[in-house]
Amino acid sequence: MAPASIVLCILLWASRCQTLDKFIAATYEHAVILPDETITPISRQEALDLMNKNIDILEEAVKTAAQQGAHLIVTPEDGIYGWRFTRETIYPFLEDIPDPDVDWIPCSDPERFGPAPIQTRLSCMAKHNSIYVVANIGDKKLCSPCDVGCPDDGQYNYNTAVVYDSNGKLVARYHKYNLFLGEVQFNVPKKPEIVTFDTPFGKFGIFICFDILFYYPAAALVVEHNVDTILFPTAWMNLLPHLTAIEFHSAWAMGMGVNLLSANTHNTSNRMAGSGIFSPDKVIPYYYNMKNESGQLLISELNSHPRNSSTYYPITWNLYASQIENSPSGSNVFNGYLFADEYTFTELKELHGQYSICQDNLCCHLDYTMAEKHSEEIFVFGVFNGLHTVEGEYYLQVCTMLKCQTTDYRSCGESVETALTRFDSFSISGNFSTSFVFPEVLLTNIHLAPDMFQVLKDGRLISKPGISSHPLLSATLFGRWYEKDPTPK
Ligand SMILES: *[C@@H]1O[C@H](CO)[C@@H](O)[C@H](O)[C@H]1NC(C)=O
Ligand SMILES: *[C@@H]1O[C@H](CO)[C@@H](O)[C@H](O)[C@H]1NC(C)=O
Ligand SMILES: *[C@@H]1O[C@H](CO)[C@@H](O)[C@H](O)[C@H]1NC(C)=O
Ligand SMILES: *[C@@H]1O[C@H](CO)[C@@H](O)[C@H](O)[C@H]1NC(C)=O
Predict the structure, then answer these.
(1) Whose CA is nearest to atom 6 of ligand 3?
(2) pLDDT at 202 > cutoff 90
């Protein structure tokens, strides 16, 4: 055999049977074209026309990603039909999506379960471009009055993520469990669904948007099912200081030790912006743009098994903090509200200092050095240990250092996007009662700080030297104590 054909044979063999240590992932942030707001349902044809307009744009992103070698692409929640629906007005947008067990390639057999034009088009997009496609569509399931949960109109509607493999086969279907406020058009499935599938480049799990704040199914996919990569379609409304999309989603990937492929919807008037290919172990591409209404494709290579990377280690979040003595809490301790949670704050009065501050059983510790002090801004260190009750109920344990919106203490915890103060170094730790802690560092103008901080094995969030070249907005250990959540109805 000539050398070239040997190489070809090896390549063919490798692509068929080998597992891949690395793969190329893509996400597309999409500025979705919305249907007109209406209280009377439009026709199926009008709904299809609108959905096809959105898919036309997604298809361009899929083609570009495939041409650049991507194995998989994630598109956003609500990316095909938008939002502002009632139960009635969503109907023409829904299709019955079968269980992936039926082993179906809609592109090859479109009528097998009755007309399914949207599923067929998505499947063909995957097949014709030889790429896994992740999309969000609406599923409908007829139910009978004997079924106690069956809605009056005789069907369940689900906010649904679907995955087609590179042959166009349906390999995953996930019904969103944690619906957000206002998703009145959809039903909650009776039980949280754990949806995973295997590929030559690792084990995948999937959930949608608000799910990320809860144990089921989000954390359970990692803890109980050992997935490597999470597919995450979202329509995330940014909320400073702790819940901006790129900030929280990158922190979740880091805290959980998984890749998280986050594709957000783009609509700046709704503060929906910010996507990324987040991984626990390397500098990540992300996109955050509030200046125009353009979509954005991101492509990056990732480890197929991030927890097997040489740079990965498990973290004991409370180790350092449970071994040290408390420092004083400072002379200016006060209470303030952050997203309606009552924090205890202390002001960072000096250029350098050490503080400890506690709420109930959680004590947070800070050691910091500022590069300079600006009289027009103040920073505080704060703690919150309690049940958050606005826009969802979930128990938090948070240690945070942040810039106040103004020099008025009452503004501490309010949203602020720019800062002047740079830090030479900081170290934050807390004696958390949970092992689910997400490390967030946000720079002025909503930039992430890849390579400017790390978390040590003992749970300390510490800055790296690069941090001093950028003004800081906040640095946070955002803990979720799932066991203390109210049990769902
Ligand atoms: C963003 O969404 C709102 C409705 O929530 C809509 O009125 C507005 O037109 C959207 N913006 C764009 C650029 O589509
Ligand atoms: C929107 O902003 C992004 C990022 O700044 C830029 O790449 C893109 O070209 C802009 N699009 C338009 C239509 O101006
Ligand atoms: C990950 O590493 C563990 C321990 O070193 C090994 O047993 C396992 O096979 C590795 N998994 C993969 C998928 O490489
Ligand atoms: C955290 O530290 C404080 C102060 O040392 C202590 O009172 C508290 O019990 C600790 N909490 C836990 C969960 O160990």
Answers:
(1) 308
(2) yes
